[in-house]
Amino acid sequence: MRPGSRWSTALLVAGSVVAAGAFAWPLLAPALPADAQAAAPWAALALAPLTALVAVLAVDGAFRSAKTLALLGTLTAVAAAVRVAGTGVGGVEVVFVLLILAGRAFGARFGFLLGVLAIGLSSTITGGFGPWTPFQMFACGWVGAGAGLLPRRVRSGVAEIAMLAAYGVVASYAFGLVMNLWFWPFAIGSGTGISYEPGAPLGRNLASFALYSLTTSTITWDTLRAVTTVAGLAVFGRAALAALRRVRLPHARRVMAKRAE
Amino acid sequence: MLRFRPAPLRLAVALAVGFVATRVVYRVLFAGAGGSGAVLIDAPVVRLPSPFEHVAMFGPITTGGLTAAALSALPIALVIVAVGVVNALVDVSRLFALGARGGPLAGSARALVIAWATFPALAEAVRRVRLARSLRGERGAGALIVPILEHTIERSIAIAASMEVRGFGARGRAEGDCERPAEVRDAEIGHGGEWSLAMPSLHLGPGSLTVLRGPTGSGKSTVLDALSGRLTHIDEGDAAGLLEVGGLDRLAVPPRETAGFVGVVAQQPRLAFAAETVDDEIGFSLAVRGVAPVIVRARVAEVVERLGIERLLGRDVRTLSAGEATLVAIAAAIVEHPILLLVDEPLADLDPPARAATIGLLGRIAHEAGVAVLVAEHRTAGFVGVADGWLEIVDGRVLPAEPPAGALPAEAPAVAAAVSEACPVAVPAALEQHPPLATVDGLTVRHGGTVAVDRASFELHRGEILVVDGPNGAGKSSLLTAIALGADEGEVRFAAMDATTNGRRARRARRRLVALVPDRSDDLLFADTVAAECRRADRTAGRPRGTTWTRFLELLGAGVPLTADASRPTTATDASALATRHPRDLSTGQRRLLVLAIQAGAGASVLLVDEPTRGLDPSARAMLAAALRGHAERGGAVVVATHDRDFAASVADRRLTMTDGVLGAPRGVGAPS
């Protein structure tokens, strides 16, 4: 591993940990000193874009070969087009199929940056920028990166697709959960049975959140997303992976070589 | 910077309409289309069982409900259109390009530049894959996804390479030594240990034109890529030994930094255009290094005048013919006054007059402008008398060679006359005894306002190969596509088809009667292995499994069934290795024969083949000619559209010439109609 690459990994992991903190602010806030608790939501909203920038800076240096950038750009365009076309059809996020396949074929860094750029480009097109954008970037980036971290040993056609499909189900629900988590207090406000109560014990807030998440997306959009992701992977997964793997990327080859050692 | 381009706006409107439509569909599905107004459909509300009991589906659909659903989608739809308007007026990619020049986020900015440039290509890929799907007789959206992905990836890499060799994203600019354009000693180039090519010694001096020849797949392009830097810096191939351009170490200096003195013309220039107009394309390498627009315009005007292509200024690059595209690509490559010019198969797409003009132009660039020009080409005859040096790839080595022996300049009138005499216009008497297999009657094709094919009529007989020749852009491809898929006016009658069938049944019947191997035959490759591709073709055509695969092997063996050939014991291993390969990794010749096998596999008696020899070396051409002859001898008929005169002469039973959409007698025989 090159020294620059080690730094970039460390920076990406650190950025992701801070971002995870921003996602989980409703659960972490009670641990803060009392006078800082009121600032927690605003701190989370401010931290998210900053850490997104840091994370992109961290991985950007790894992508300088024209071919890798061409592929990253093309897949970003395809993902953005798919995402824009699917706006409003909640949950039918075919973009997950692409993120998972690209992360698997080209590694975690590539998957992460693809997720971030796809959200960035599709938001530019639809004008859908907002406080949620950096959170979406991280969540999609993590979906791609996670696919890149799955074990390399599984290479046979059916087993590999089955593994990716299982990951797709986990990622679909996890995506919904973390996107609900940071938004939950903003979405419901106070005064209902499942509202966020800053002073309440963790257990009670967790239960409220579970109920909120279940009714908001888990059993509807997230389930639909899981189903479409699995269906997409089953139908196109093998051929699309073969298409992607035909493009020999320098850094993907290094990933392969490293894993093989 | 402000110039109206309709394409982004069209895309935005399409996206906006799609967005509104999906929203309405979604509302109808999930009980959201009810409300005021007349009730259109009074469907019952379906409550989902636990745990989905809060979700209702269907329910009444009213005019008010549909309007409300559409209206609720309008704000975002309008935003999409507004962004499309901005995009149509402002070339946003140029803003990305600023960030892409350097800095810590250059990678992401460059990826976004490419993403932006990919959107029109995405629409183009969808169009081409849809055409390919109907040519293969398939239906359904599922057939489209993976081919579209492959198309866009292929195109984006071509664009990335063409941007790189013209200096995109360069931080510095290396100066080359004019006296030493290219120098190679004891070099070995290859791809990851799987394949390699030795280059013992190669020296290109200023003001010389050198032709590199060798069979398809022998590595001509790789030699050019090694000198342009594409091999090691973009395609991640390997190279060892001494490789210098302009006195600089090619392995150490990336292509973007040598863009000032190394010009590159890609094999398929139309795939690699990075700008949208001819002016911007030619001035690209100047613009990316920040030359003032007024100077860019002056330099573009100068090079355009030198090449005599002033008429192309202002054109959209997508409207250029193959010949025009080659000239624009050459102009773009010499706008920086390079020391070294690398040209990959410039003649492949050109008709005879354009070939002669291009050869003359390359000669002038070398001898008058003092550039070292290296051309990879297997149509070498025309370069005799122009080229100063010859190289040939023999057994994995690049060696000095002699000019092709006994070759006449390709376009000598004597050759053309001989070809014409050998190919009678009239139907040979032996063929006329049977009723025609197909009758083309008054076929007319219009593209927008222009007539591409004007009332084409001819009869096609069992056992014959008809060659339609004519210059680029004459309408040959449009004619073949119209015969395969139908046209605006006129009809094609087949002896075997009941004239009264129409609609979908007629389309299916037509597919069993006529099949087209298009110009871009690779578009028809859909699957991820050769075996899967053959199985898919069998399934679509409803033929027994193995039909297409057997046909493919037969074509490769030029009509000799491989299983019966005991003298080639390795064939079975070769074949099974072939079956598991990705179709797009086959050689050009193998790919063309595979598509031929797929298209002929459906049992069509009339086979249409468009420009079949592009990129093929003589042995692959011979295989192809044998395959077409075999089809005719089995009682079918073949129509070949080509401007390859030698190939036409070798296969044609009969020839017709197409000029400006009008089909007539071949040039040089009788009076043109």
The helix count of chain A comes to 11
Unreliable residue stretches of chain B: 407-425, 558-571, 668-673
Radius of gyration of chain A: 19 Å
CATH homologous superfamily caption of the largest domain in chain B? P-loop containing nucleotide triphosphate hydrolases
CATH architecture of the largest domain in chain B, by name, is 3-Layer(aba) Sandwich
Residue share in helix of chain B: 40-55%
Number of helices of chain B: 23
What is the helix content of chain A?
over 70%
**Strand order of the biggest β-sheet of chain B:** 8-9-10-5-11-12
What is this structure's SSE topology?
The complex is a heterodimer of chains A (261) and B (673).
Chain A: H1 3-23, H2 25-28, H3 34-37, H4 40-60, H5 66-85, H6 95-106, H7 108-126, H8 132-148, H9 157-188, H10 202-246, H11 250-260
Chain B: H1 6-29, E1 39-47, E2 56-62, H2 63-89, H3 92-100, H4 106-135, H5 145-164, E3 182-191, E4 195-204, E5 209-213, H6 220-228, H7 230-233, E6 238-245, E7 248-249, E8 262-265, H8 269-272, H9 278-282, H10 284-288, H11 293-307, H12 322-334, E9 340-344, H13 352-367, E10 372-376, E11 389-394, E12 397-400, H14 413-422, H15 429-432, E13 438-447, E14 450-460, E15 465-469, H16 476-485, E16 489-494, H17 503-513, E17 514-517, H18 530-541, H19 547-556, H20 571-579, H21 588-601, E18 606-610, H22 618-633, E19 637-641, H23 645-651, E20 654-659, E21 662-664
Parallel strand pairs in B: 5-10, 5-11, 8-9, 9-10, 15-19, 15-20, 17-18, 18-19
Antiparallel strand pairs in B: 1-2, 3-4, 3-6, 6-7, 11-12, 13-14, 13-16, 20-21
Helix pairs in contact in B: 1-2, 3-4, 4-5, 11-12, 14-23, 18-21, 19-21, 21-22
